[in-house]
Amino acid sequence: MLLIQNFSETFIEAGCDEVGRGCLAGPVVAAAVIVDKNFKQNLVNDSKTLNFQTRQNLDSYIRENAVDFAIAELPPEFIDQHNILNASLHAMHLALDQLKTRPELILVDGNKFHPYNYIPHHCIIKGDSKYLSIAAASILAKNYRDNLMIRLHDEFPDYGWNTNFGYCTKTHQKALKKFGPNIHHRKSFRLDYDVEI
Length: 197
What we know:
The protein is built from 6 helices and 5 strands; from the N terminus they run ββαβααββααα. It is α/β, with parallel strands linked by helices. A 5-stranded mixed beta sheet has the order 3-2-1-4-5, sandwiched between helices. The radius of gyration is 17 Å and the shape is globular. The model has no long low-confidence stretch (mean pLDDT 92).
């Protein structure tokens, strides 16, 4: 299914999405992307439906062809202090802050958003599978975070972050039981799931 280009034909739209809400470790990452009618890429879709290599290739296309884009991250300490929902929404705001082109409408994947700079917004359930700007934001955010977790894996190789990217897997849980959490774990999250060892 081809995604719809714009929510409105009138306004400059910024699509926003985040990744990493359900992870036990690592930051939450958000991206904001503005595209126009010249942005034509049939492979752009919800990042969760794309394989790693396709996402990496699309990342370059988005960066080169979007009107504007920005990425922001917030660390586990912020998540622990403000909770993951507020951290996710604040990360979106930080991404929007970095845009050089001021949007006139914000499209948000999901059903929650805090108003931003008096700009109208629409929350769209599964928006990353409906609108190109949100799908592009989901790809940039996921690629950025996955690549970050791969780099952190070099520092903390026991947790399997090069393949689980901080999510709760058996490998991750076994490492938590054996080594305990490290500086990149979210202390406010449940980290003591039972696994068969």
